[in-house]
Amino acid sequence: MFTGIVEEKGKIEAIQQTNEALALRIAAKKVLEDVSIGDSISVNGVCLTVTEFGDTWFTVDVIPETFRGSSLARLKRQSEVNLERAMQMNGRFGGHIVSGHIDLTGTIERTWIEDNAKYYYIKVAETKLIALKGSITVDGTSLTVFGVDHQGFTISLIPETQEATVLGKKMSGDIVNVEFDMMAKYMERLLEVSNHTSGITEERLQQLGF
Fold first, then answer.
1. Which of 14, 81, 123, 125 could pair with 152 in a Cys bridge, judged by C-beta atoms 3.0 to 4.6 Å apart?
2. Mean pLDDT to the nearest integer, 180-204
3. Could you give the CA distance from residue 70 to residue 45 in angstroms, rounded to a whole number?
4. For residue 122, what pLDDT band results from cuts at 50, 70 and 90?
5. Using CA atoms, how far apart are residues 142 and 205, in angstroms rounded to an integer?
6. Contact 64/18 with Cβ under 8 angstroms?
7. pLDDT the model gives residue 91
8. What is the pLDDT of residue 184?
9. What residue spans do the Lumazine-binding repeats cover (predicted)?
10. Are residues 53 and 35 in contact, defined by beta-carbon separation less than 8 angstroms?
11. Residues spanned by CATH 2.40.30.20 within the chain?
């Protein structure tokens, strides 16, 4: 599990591709401070397992399912990536609960600046699990939704997030990894099951304040 608070930007040093599988070697520093083989590290929002590491690098494997369902297949040598270690139970919880299992990819349709904030409108295949002022993860970064319609959603980056994450340099046309809020996904599943087995309905949940 992760929090969506990016710890550092790593850089792709090498890529080995076999059909729809990848082996990535990533230069990093902070996430290597207590690393072990088998640890989980979020790479642009995708939970991957450390297979090897050195003083300034680590390697991960990308399986075909992840290759097809994420933006990792678009990475090149020298590409920067957002990195976050799995959360510690005794640490501060600065973002929201993030699984590292992305739901879909989105396309940045447009960006604009308002004072010190940079806004992004991201087009996605579905938006039913996105709530205004709710949480969403984009390329591993925990963000607040400032707008949502049937085609996409809007997020905003403060200067610190623009500098500390790869999102700050993303432009129109770029593909990003998107993970919906975990509570929304479980609620949707609960409604699907409950509609067939009990009297719980969306209207009843709204009456109860959900």
1. 123
2. 68
3. 9
4. very high
5. 26
6. no
7. 65
8. 73
9. 1-96, 97-191
10. yes
11. 8-85, 104-195
pLDDT tens-digit readout, 66-104? 999 999 999 999 999 999 999 876 666 667 889 999 999
Range 146-172 average pLDDT: 97
CA distances from 140 to 74, 82, 205 (A): 16, 7, 30
Enumerate residues 6+ apart whose C-beta is below 8 A from 63: 21
**Cβ contacts of residue 68 below 8 Å, gap of 6+?**
20
The CATH architecture that domain 104-195 belongs to is Beta Barrel (2.40)
Token pair recorded at residue 66: 């992840």
State how far Cα 156 lies from the chain centre.
15
Q: Which two tokens stand for residue 139?
A: 């390329």
120: left (phi over 0), alpha (psi -120 to 50) or beta: beta
